[in-house]
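Bench log. Compound arrived from synthesis this morning; before running ITC I wanted a structural hypothesis for how 1-deoxynojirimycin sits in the protein. Inputs:
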Amino acid sequence: MAATWLSNAVFYEIYPQSFYDTNGDGIGDFNGIIEKLDYIKGLGCNALWINPCYDSPFKDAGYDVRDYKKVAPRYGTNEDLYRLFEKAHEKGIHVLLDLVPGHTSEEHEWFRQSQKDEQNEYSDRYIWTEFCFEGAAGLPYVGGESERSGTYILNFFKCQPALNYGFLHPDKPWQLPMNHPEAIATREAIKDVMRFWLSHGCDGFRVDMASSLVKKDDEKKSGTSAIWRDVRRMLECEFPEAAMIAEWSCPPQALRAGYDMDFYLNNRNNGYSTLMRDYESPAGDHSYFKKDAGGNINRFLDEYMSWYEDTKDLGYISLITCNHDTIRPSYNLDVTELKLAYAFLFTMPGVPFLYYGDEIGMRYQKLPTKEGGYYRTGSRTPMQWDESANLGFSTADSCDLYLPVDPSDDAPTVSVQEKDPASLLSTTKALLALRQQYEDLQADAPFSVICSEPGRPFIYRRGALTLAINPSGHEMTSRVDAKEVLFTIGDAALKDGTLTLGAQTFAVLR
Ligand code: NOJ
């Protein structure tokens, strides 16, 4: 594991389109992020992940990169981004960019060249079959769009042709082996992109679709993992403090592939989804943090603990409040429920991620799709700063905004919640301050479960601290090995080793 700064890192994810607009064009920009660095620091976050901000036709919100080394003019210039790195570092904030190694936009120059009939440097940069009507052995493909006679493989949407990292077991003439010079050239090209941003001051990458570089027969991910281990060796030599987090959601694989961190993402009915988003479960919503939904923390722990035990010496599991692909947690939880959920997420081992706006409980909006967002669009609306026009996001005319702001009269804002010590924002700050105060609440301190019996408080240990959660609407008691209460949300009392937790309470004890 490389980056030592991760041991007390708390990330803030910024969807740049929607964070803060300083030039009045209705879309967020780098200068806006720079202006809000003190806010982010005041929140208790010391690291950023910025969604793709590169030149793009924006058919998938920037995950369709047209030029890996040039930022999209709507956010500013490369120099603005370099200045953002510099200003963030001055405040002790690290910055991760989003690396999209699996595909480019169909408008990327590499792809334009690759579509040509005559052989050139980029002919094998993407995966092409040999004939215009030839299917792609079960992989999604597009035909009829190029002068070249062949069909090309897609990685995600139609606008995102897959880059060619070779095949683990090639069985068609068009499938290159992973050690083919052209497959290696793709990997080297991505390393070159990484070097470019790292040498301009970026601190690492969140890696898009990290698990699927090698197509077909790579179920155990040995091919894709070998590529990432090779990338890690480059980083160890050239940028030893660079941090890498995978969009993989299988920490035993991702961390063995050389990643520092892997997200535990919301996938239907997985352990993470049972905490806050169990509404997709066929058995009904028993989200653990939903008051009296009859949740059971073991549905999370069963998956989490096996990953944690397996990987705790390799790297970190990252728990998230949400991300740009996920329905905001406030869709299903009220403010008190969110406070308890965040208390849990921010006191667990590993490196947590807070999605912009979740600190004030921004709401999921029902909106038509924007830039390939579909249902995800509703979690990407402008940040709600204050009571002024467009809730302080932009001075543009409201019809020119990237997305409309929350139109409700009681739309949560930073300025209102900052004044209220009982607000979600104040609680989030208090929780993150607590995490910074006690090393035992940070990434590396040991974690163990003391009690996870349904109907009883969930009690866990971090280092020398004991933590207890009662998400239900009724009081619970438990014997605990602790002498004092250090922090509470709700009402907790400790007397002669008996802990009484009022309804919806979280407590940290020593
Ligand atoms: C995952 C990203 O998080 C998502 O937003 C994007 O649409 C796909 N990968 C494709 O890049």
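What the model suggests: DSSP finds twelve helices and 20 strands in the chain. Residues 60, 63, 100, 156, 208-209, 247, 324-325 surround 1-deoxynojirimycin (CB under 6 Å).
ITC booked for Thursday regardless.
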